[in-house]
Write a structure and sequence with these properties.
CATH architecture: 3-Layer(aba) Sandwich
Largest sheet: 7 strands, parallel
Helix content: 25-40%
CATH topology: Rossmann fold
Strand content: 15-25%
Order of helices and strands: EHEHEEHEHEEHEHEHEH
Length: 251
């Protein structure tokens, strides 16, 4: 356990994707038996590819009754669509399963603050049932970066500055590498919006994530200097692999 969050250690990135997809699909099917529409939030990036692809192949999920949202995206009118988070999740999941609806951040909106308000209004229409996210090498959740994150934020969606550490990670991400740069701004769900989800799943494979997970393992309480540490106080499931797992969790 990591505080209130249950940790599962998987053999490798592929196994993590399969294990996380099985857990998420099971919950999606259970919720679909209880309510007419299920609302789920997903993330993009190298660490989510194996999970998204595995989830797209899970049988028996009633996608025609699932509304999908992205947890964040870049904001930059210059950026080609194929280098956005929305494009990646569409390619690896949404286009494969045809959900009831797909709700993406408009990465090239004229007014990013107005776009954040629009997306927030969509999210607040009904509770978030399932949220699937990662942890960045900076310790961010979504694009909520260290020391600029407010655990008590009154907003559900906010325009944020992308931290330099996150830019370095994303410039090496095969989904975004060919762009040659990472935008300075992003639009993201805030921590209160993330924590509002009934069920929270966090997927963190790959060796480049071991240093930040090692820092997280040493955290004794949630701190805004390390946004992902909020998972200490939040019930959920955290999936890591042998490459990303901190030594402290192996025992």
């Amino acid at each position: 356990m990591y505080g209130q969050t249950r940790v599962t250690i998987c053999k490798d990135n592929f196994a993590l994707g399969q294990c996380a997809a099985s857990a998420v699909s099971r919950r999606l099917r259970e919720l679909a038996e209880q309510q007419e529409v299920v609302r789920a939030v997903f993330a993009a990036g190298e660490s989510h590819s194996s999970f998204l692809i595995a989830l797209s192949n899970e049988p028996g999920i009633p996608w025609e009754r699932i509304d999908c949202f992205n947890i964040d995206d870049f904001w930059d009118p210059r950026i080609p669509r194929k280098y956005t988070c929305g494009y990646q999740t569409s390619l690896q999941l949404y286009d494969c399963v045809n959900p009831r609806s797909v709700n993406l951040v408009n990465y090239n909106a004229d007014d990013p603050d107005a776009e954040a308000r629009r997306f927030s209004e969509l999210l607040r229409e009904q509770p978030i049932d399932i949220l699937c996210q990662g942890i960045g090498t900076s310790g961010h959740l979504g694009l909520n970066e260290p020391d600029t994150t407010d655990f008590g934020d009154h907003l559900w969606v906010r325009v944020v500055d992308v931290a330099e550490q996150s830019k370095r990670q994303l410039r090496d991400d095969p989904n975004f590498k060919a762009l040659g740069y990472i935008p300075d701004k992003g639009i993201t769900l805030t921590i209160p919006a993330i924590l509002s989800a009934r069920y929270c799943f966090t997927m963190v494979p790959l060796g480049l994530k071991k240093p930040i997970l090692t820092r997280l393992a040493a955290a004794k309480e949630p701190t805004q200097a390390l946004p992902a540490s909020v998972l200490l106080a939040n019930e959920g499931e955290l999936f890591v692999d042998e490459d990303s797992c901190p030594d402290a969790w192996r025992a």
